[in-house]
Amino acid sequence: MRSFRVSVVRSLLFAENREDLSESGPMPRVCVKELKDGDSVNEIFLLADKQLRANRNANLYLLATLRDRTGVISGLMWNVAEDSALEFSAGDYVRVRGKVQVYQGGLQMIVTHIDPAPEASANPEDFHVQSQANAAPQLARLKELLLSLQSLPLRTLAECFLEDDALITGLCAAPAGVKAHHAYMGGLIEHVVGMSEVADRLCTLYPVLNRDLLLLGVLLHDLGKVRELSWDPTLAYTDEGQLLGHINIAVEMLNEKLKAAESRLGQSFNAETVLRLKHMILSHHGTLGFGSPVLPMTPEAITLHYIDNLDARLNEFSRSIADDLNGDSSWTPFSPRLERRLFKGHDRAK
Fold first, then answer.
1. Which of 87, 95, 134, 342 is the most exposed place for a label (fewest CB within 10 A)?
2. Are 113 and 10 in contact (CB under 8 A)?
3. Residue 162 zone, left/alpha/beta (φ > 0; ψ -120 to 50; rest)
4. Residue 292's closest CA among 303, 302, 284?
5. CA-CA distance, 339 to 37, in Å (whole number)?
6. Which long-range contacts (CB under 8 A, 24 or more apart) does 271-279 make?
7. Which residue has the higher pLDDT, 251 or 103?
8. Can you give the pTM of this predicted structure?
9. pLDDT in tens, 28-53
10. Which CATH class is domain 2-126?
């Protein structure tokens, strides 16, 4: 009850402060990308994730992932009461007060206060991490490539996917990941189209590749993420995604569309063709240690794996450099995911 009263008082004080500020006009938002070492912060963020942890003395502390449209920063709040952390959940807007500091080469925030923020006090556009490119031209290009398939059965199968309005809406809106590559709304179609362009060009250099199979494999390999992930308002995994994973979901989706395509064609699909398509989905992570139940065993499957890895890593490298908050350094902080620091260049640091 005490924590509730404290939260109410804080909210009232915040409201009074907003009224005082309104007389001189609205204060501009301080974005994550603008934060620097030593900055004092009193701002609204989207709580992307929260974790209660215990230190060596069994005292609880809060690890919060705070996000806006420009980036993400970790917030640490020491000596947290468990009931106070129940006042807000991942996906909520929160008002955070604290101070930014450098830790192990990167920026983090030491939080002194964190409280739920009314949705009316936040502009959703400040928190939607949008794609770097418009989805409409991306979708148009994807349709152009898929409708150029030479095999009538495979082109019919592609049409069954493209004519599923709900699926295509999800493809254009979904991220391709939560924390790694293309982790923003619209990231999935950007990833698929980028890979499709590479696949199309590689097929002219390597005649051994079946272009129709490879392009369909590119479409299918991550299509299950439309159901594996959620993105409103924060990027997260669905229950289906946690329990099944996008690889299994994509095979289910392929089975559904195969039935629809066979109905249109009035004939069954070639059994080997179906096996090759499913094999590309199942093996696209490349190794058993990264979630693929089988290794790539066809020219198209190994090509799909390397294209996927190339597009994902280039996106992760470029965004890590562009989003780095250390503007005065020519290197990014060490990335545990990438297992290295990235060189930004001296010109970028100026």
1. 134
2. yes
3. alpha
4. 284
5. 24
6. 273/153, 273/154, 273/213, 276/213, 276/300, 276/301, 277/213, 277/216, 277/217, 277/220, 278/251, 278/254
7. 251
8. 0.71
9. 788 888 888 889 999 999 888 888 88
10. mainly beta
